[in-house]
Design a protein that fits this description.
The structure holds 2 protein chains of 2 kinds.
Chain A (H helix, E strand, L loop, with lengths): L1 H11 L18 E4 L4 E3 L7 E6 L5 H8 L2 H8 L4 E7 L11 H11 L5 E4 L4 H6 L3 E2 L1 E5 L5 E5 L18 H10 L14 E2 L5
Parallel strand pairs in A: 3-4, 4-5
Antiparallel strand pairs in A: 1-2, 1-5, 3-7, 6-9, 7-8
Chain B lengths: L1 H13 L4 E2 L2 E2 L3 E7 L9 E10 L4 E8 L6 E5 L5 E6 L4 E5 L2 E7 L1 E9 L9 E13 L3 E13 L9 H12 L8 E8 L2 E8 L9 E6 L12 E5 L2 E7 L10 E9 L7 E7 L12 E2 L18 H15 L6 H14 L4 H31 L13 H19 L9 H4 L7 H16 L7 H9 L3 H24 L13 H28 L1 H27 L2 H18 L19 E2 L2 H9 L4 E6 L4 H11 L2 H9 L3 E6 L5 H9 L7 E5 L8 E3 L5 H11 L2 H9 L2
Parallel strand pairs in B: 21-23, 22-23
Antiparallel strand pairs in B: 1-12, 2-3, 3-4, 4-10, 5-9, 6-11, 7-10, 8-9, 11-12, 13-14, 14-17, 15-18, 16-17, 16-20, 18-19, 22-24, 24-25
Helix pairs in contact in B: 3-9, 3-10, 4-8, 4-11, 5-8, 5-10, 6-11, 6-12, 9-10, 11-12, 12-13, 16-18
Classes of the chains: A alpha+beta, B alpha+beta.
Chain lengths: ~200, ~725
């Protein structure tokens, strides 16, 4: 009933923004094809910690974390602890759009190592999560609830040199989850380019 | 281009000592600009980072919204200098798909206050350096930066203002959110909504058509969600959907409220308040305010006219002014003086043509100057504004009546009629030409020829130099035919030879002038009522007696009758002099058949009911408006079509000064009448502007295009 009311309120306000994922709430379920054409369902990873990384190689903020090696390093460092899913919601008509093959090529070039690279060309999953920027980071805990939503780190800039001095929110959250603690900074403001959704 | 050149020239003249270089990236031109061309020791002064984005690209406000990054300035100042924070002008909403950003398109000045140390030596040059970083986006984003420098001389006293930059700084300050003392915001949050209650004691109470909230923090509200504005008794309520996960320490709310048409002092107000547990309940008659269409920078559809296009339109508009009914009498006078002088030396003729052009030019520039001065003074003013003043109309009626009597042969003053209007200009032919140029302008102003509306509307938002250039182009257009004739006097042979017929012609030319007088009196009646008409007619009678007496006396050469006639003339003027305005005497009253009096609220109300709205912006002194009314709007087939499609007909009468109408015209990008605006039933769609010269077909066509068939069906089935 309460959810119905909330939905009604949202509809009433004619919001364009989505019922975004909220920390502590169950992560919205989805099925998406990855860059190799395989179907991936979030439920496949039940019982595991999942990191969702909204990405778009056409965005300078994403490139800040790939050129500096920051994002690939995180993906590799926590490969055993989490399932890292990179999601690209860029619509097909946009100049930033890349095919699965091109994205695989990009990952190879930059030493990226996500478990899967998911294609969300229709933007449905991005909107279900309320992903606004690239990068926009989500962590789903082993119980399927959202444990972290927000920025990759605390220095909103596009310059690579800031990576060294920034506090990485995602790494800190994963460490806390590993240690069985509650995530201390569970919700932050993401920064970056807008997600290039289908208009 | 020309504008930039002028700009550079002015800057060069005003500030030979201060210099700064602009940096051009692929998408942005960046520059440090200064308000004053120097700095005094120990003073605090304002500089600005000027960012000019290429078309359709934007940079961001301090809270960029759903994505993006605010512009940053890192100052590198000499020892002892201190820099304040960026003073951000209010942003606008920039939607992209399901997301919304807050930022700036076009050009923005980010003001910063700097403090100079006391120990500076006058004459010294101080270099102020800064690195600016910004993110510029369209559908892709590019981070860019520039290393900028501004060198200022240290002056003894307060340094002079840089006149080239002054207007831009003034405009930037207008866009800064104000902290108003008579303004109160209460806030509360409940059920996923941020509820703001705004009360203001400013008089008159603002009539808002739109209100937008921009929060300081990026994690409080859903940036893309629509915000609902309610009129709540004397207050306004704005309801904004909260972010899905508002911050934990969410106990205060700070941000900027941007209002259309504004709060009186400006459009943007800043506030920072603690959240209250609850707000007063909504008044029983609280009602949603339906958003009016945003005044866009391109009101006429496609592209905003560049300065060049505006200049061409202004010139064409000026040319067409020659053919407008209210220029006709003066055109007659001009033609006559050409006939008289066709046998003068060609060189004299040319210089007279140029003097005429100069007269027109001077008159237009004086007008433009006055308009700029009034605009700067905050007065809301539009084209044709002279005829909104009953005094001006009265004096013009007296002048034209005397001119007409003169043409009729009641009295003679020198050789030509114009001399009466401009005895100050001396008795030379050049003086005559100059004065007839001035006169042509004075009479041309009430008639807004097609094309001119857009050009003038364009100047409203332009800096002073552009306004002056556009008015100059109008002037040249008006003067062009006469100058052309004076240059190629061979073409004058098509004009008839002087002779006895000239006296006849002169007398015939009196009749258009009498007609003009009748029209002016009609205008006055609309403005000031019946009594004013009686007074001006009595005044004209006295003037007629005076003129007749003068004509007889000047034949006999006696001094006493001339003195008496002067006295009578003065009495005539005093009689005609209008009293206070009688309110409510306007012509286009609400009871004019199917037409209702216009108001912003009425437009909003009709659109809220899903009705299309047609607005006739008109004035009694606008002849084009009257002609359009007769030949297009009042035609039965047009009225039937209006009724069939259930169109709400509103008439905005601008015969006398009405700030609300001036404002509405400005929002449509115009500042002259006629303007015909057709608002489609879809409230999100912008109004369609019809041409200034209407035919029944134009109106019918526009109706068919703008009002969808569904609406027609619904309206006819209810008939």
């Amino acid at each position: 009933m309460k959810r119905l009311l909330a939905a009604a309120t949202l509809a009433f306000c004619a919001t364009v923004a989505q019922a975004a994922a909220v920390v502590g709430q169950p992560a919205p379920s989805f099925t998406l094809a990855d860059t190799n054409g395989k179907q991936v369902n979030l439920a496949d990873y039940k019982g595991k910690v999942v990191v969702l990384e909204w990405s778009n190689p056409g965005c300078p903020f994403v490139m800040k974390h790939y050129r500096s090696g920051n994002m690939p390093a995180l993906q590799k460092k926590y490969a055993k602890d989490v399932v890292w899913l990179t999601v690209n919601s860029t619509t097909e008509g946009h100049s930033d759009y890349m095919t699965g093959k091109q994205l695989n090529e990009f990952s190879k070039q930059h030493g990226a190592a996500p478990a899967r690279y998911l294609l969300d060309v229709e933007g449905k999953v991005g909107k279900a999560y309320g992903a606004r920027t690239t990068p926009h980071m989500y962590i789903v805990d082993a119980s399927g609830k959202l444990a972290y939503v927000g920025a990759i780190d605390d220095v909103p800039s596009a310059s690579e040199s800031d990576v060294k001095t920034a506090k990485n929110f995602v790494a800190a959250a994963i460490e806390e989850i590993k240690a069985g603690k509650a995530v201390s900074e569970a919700s932050t403001s993401p920064y970056g380019c807008s997600v290039k959704y289908k208009q | 281009m020309l504008q930039r050149f002028l700009h550079a020239l002015l800057l060069l003249l005003a500030s030979a000592a201060a210099y700064a270089a602009s940096v051009k990236t692929d998408h942005v031109e960046a520059e440090l600009v200064t308000e004053r061309v120097g700095l005094a020791p120990g003073s605090s002064f304002t500089v600005a980072l000027r960012l000019k984005m290429i078309e359709h690209w934007h940079t961001y406000w301090k809270n960029p919204g759903d994505s993006g990054l605010p512009t940053k300035i890192a100052w590198q100042l000499p020892p002892g200098f201190e820099a304040g924070a960026i003073q951000w002008p209010h942003p606008k909403r920039l939607p992209t798909g399901p997301l919304t950003n807050f930022g700036y398109e076009g050009e923005v000045l980010l003001l910063t206050q700097l403090q100079a140390p006391a120990g500076l030596k006058p004459g010294e040059q101080v270099a102020l350096n800064a690195r600016a970083d910004w993110l510029v986006c369209k559908d892709v984003c590019i981070p860019e930066h520039a290393q900028l420098s501004l060198t200022l001389p240290v002056t003894v006293g307060e340094p002079p203002v840089d006149s080239a930059q002054q207007a831009k700084f003034a405009a930037a300050r207008v866009a800064l959110p104000q902290a108003l003392s008579n303004f109160k915001v209460e806030a509360s949050s409940a059920e996923g909504l941020l509820d703001l209650r705004i009360t203001t004691q400013s008089a008159p109470a603002p009539q808002l058509t739109r209100l937008e909230f921009y929060p300081e923090r990026g994690d409080v509200i859903q940036h893309a969600a629509s915000q609902k504005l309610l009129r709540d008794g004397d207050a306004y309520r704005l309801r904004v959907p909260l972010a899905d996960a508002p911050p934990k320490n969410f106990s205060t709310i700070a941000g900027v409220l941007v209002a259309e048409p504004g709060w009186g002092a400006g459009k943007a107000v800043a506030f920072d308040v603690a959240l209250a547990a609850s707000l007063p309940a909504l008044a029983a008659n609280a009602a949603e305010v339906v958003a009016a269409p945003v005044a866009s920078s391109a009101p006429n559809g496609a592209l905003p006219p560049s300065l060049w296009v505006a200049l061409v339109f202004a010139f064409i508009g000026g040319l067409i002014l020659n053919l407008m009914p209210c220029v006709f009498p003066v055109l007659g006078i001009k033609v006559m003086s050409f006939v008289q002088r066709a046998h003068d030396a060609p060189r004299a003729l040319r210089s007279q043509g140029l003097m005429f052009a100069l007269g027109v030019l001077v008159a237009f520039l004086v007008l433009a100057g006055a308009m700029l001065a009034l605009r700067a003074g905050g007065a809301q003013i539009g084209w044709g504004f002279q005829l909104q003043s009953p005094l001006f109309v009265t004096l013009l009626a007296c002048l034209f009546f005397l001119l007409a009597l003169n043409l009729s042969g009641v009295f003679e003053v020198g050789a030509s009629a114009q001399r009466l209007a401009g005895s100050v200009a001396g008795k030379s032919a050049h003086g005559d030409a100059f004065v007839s140029g001035l006169l042509a302008t004075a009479v041309a102003t009430p008639c807004t020829a097609p094309f001119m509306g857009a050009a003038i509307g364009y100047t409203l938002a332009q800096p002073a130099p552009a306004t002056l250039i556009i008015f100059a182009a109008l002037a040249l257009g008006l003067a062009a035919p006469v100058v052309l004739l004076s240059w190629y006097p061979r073409w004058l042979r098509f004009l008839p030879k002087p002779g006895r017929w000239m006296e006849t012609f002169k007398q015939v030319m009196a009749f258009p002038l009498y007609a003009t007088v009748i029209w002016l009196i009609w205008v006055l009646g609309a403005q000031a009522g019946n009594d004013a008409v009686l007074r001006v007619l009595l005044g004209l009678l006295l003037l007629g007696i005076a003129a007749w007496l003068y004509g007889r006396a000047s034949l006999s050469g006696k001094a006493l009758p001339i003195a008496i006639s002067a006295l009578i003339a003065a009495a005539g003027l005093a009689t005609a002099w209008p009293n206070k305005l009688q309110p409510g005497a306007n012509l286009a009253a609400a009871n004019d058949g199917a037409w209702q009096a216009w108001s912003q609220e009425r437009v909003a109300a009709s659109r809220a009911q899903g009705k299309p709205v047609f607005v006739d912006f008109t004035a009694a002194w606008c002849i084009t408006c009257q002609v359009n009314k007769r030949i297009a709007l009042n035609r039965s087939e047009v009225m039937q079509e209006f009724a069939k499609r259930d169109v709400a007909l509103l008439r905005a009468d601008w015969t006398t000064q009405d700030p609300a109408i001036t404002q509405a015209l400005a929002e449509l990008g115009r500042n002259a009448v006629p303007v015909y605006a057709l608002y489609p039933p879809d409230t999100a769609a912008p109004p369609q502007l019809l041409p200034e010269v209407l035919t029944p077909n134009i109106v019918l066509q526009a109706l068919q295009n703008a009002v969808p068939a569904a609406n027609t069906a619904r309206a006819s089935s209810s008939n």
